[in-house]
């Protein structure tokens, strides 16, 4: 898991079903629309202007990060290369693999960040210190 790079992470386009009278719906199904089974779902909202979220990596957990409303940026870092993604469409998600540091910034007013995760919460899986992350990547 520590060998994943930012180039292994990608935007996944999710099916959007549109009706002129009823709006849009996007469905996400385990192991069909995304390459893992969702074991945990959470969302971030009311993030104050100028604040950041994330600033950690996971040893085993994969995520699909979706801008359910509004927009924000996600910067991924594999210890060598950084890539920044603007998320602003609810039918697209950023697939983040284990061993990738992530920072979420630039939240627009009213934005909602929906996260689908491959594992339940486990503090042992988190790497919250950047120097520890770099050591993990060198293993």
UniProtKB/TrEMBL annotation:
Keywords: Isomerase
Xref: Gene3D superfamilies: Jelly Rolls (2.60.120.10)
InterPro entries recorded: QdtA_cupin_dom (IPR008894), RmlC-like_jellyroll (IPR014710), RmlC_Cupin_sf (IPR011051)
Domain Sugar 3,4-ketoisomerase QdtA cupin stretches: 8-137
Domain of life assignment: Bacteria
UniProt-listed Pfam families: FdtA (PF05523)
GO molecular function: isomerase activity
Keyword Transferase among UniProt keywords: no
Entry keyword Isomerase: yes
Official protein name in the record: dTDP-6-deoxy-3,4-keto-hexulose isomerase
Species for this entry: Bacteroides faecalis
């Amino acid at each position: 898991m520590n060998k994943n790079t930012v180039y292994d992470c990608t935007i996944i386009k999710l099916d959007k079903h549109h009706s002129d009278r009823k709006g849009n719906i996007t469905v996400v199904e385990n192991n069909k629309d995304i390459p893992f089974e969702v074991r945990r779902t959470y969302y971030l909202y009311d993030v104050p202007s100028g604040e950041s979220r994330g600033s950690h990596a996971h040893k085993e957990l994969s995520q699909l990060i979706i801008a359910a409303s509004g927009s924000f940026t996600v910067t991924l870092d594999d210890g060598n290369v950084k890539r920044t993604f603007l998320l602003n469409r609810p039918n697209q998600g950023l697939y983040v693999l284990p061993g990738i540091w992530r920072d979420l910034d630039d939240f627009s007013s009213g934005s909602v960040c929906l996260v689908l995760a491959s594992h339940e919460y486990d503090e042992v899986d988190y790497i919250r210190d950047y120097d520890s992350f770099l050591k993990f990547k060198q293993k």
